[in-house]
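Before the break, one more example. Copy the sequence into your notebook; we will annotate it together after we see the structure.
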Amino acid sequence: MIQRSDGYSWVFGMIRNILVVCVGNICRSPLGERILQRQLPDLRVTSAGIGALVGHSADTTAAEVAALHGISLDGHVARQFNAEIGRENDLILVLEPGHKAQIARETPQLSGKIMLLDHWIGAKGIADPYRKSQEFHEAVFQQIEAAAHSWVQRLAPKGKV
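Here is what the structure looks like once it is written out:
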């Protein structure tokens, strides 16, 4: 069980559905989704955006960087976050503190299940690489991978990490 600073506590064995949220749902959250899916195959991991480019596939540069690391973003389709999607998930992992604040403001009933993806490794947020260089995308990939790994350490069944 994890006791959160906001008074909530979780029994991680109860988390079956995870939602990763960024802005456009074409760079960071698809990466987080696919990395977590690969490492937590028994959990359902999806993604959405608070300002999604609905219907768009993953950003080309993000997809290229992911492919260099053996992760495919093929088939990803951006979708808009809403309260219903939020309710379907046990844990909502956001990429920036502002995302957490926006979701909590718009859907306060979900605030107890929202945490930063990088919560366990600094909780500063991970910058948006949209329309930035491949090097920037690579740095963001590394941050997302490290953040996802920190969640895997807590969510994977004992002996499976």
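The longest strand covers residues 17-22. The CA atoms of residues 34 and 71 lie 7 Å apart. Try to locate both features in your own notes.
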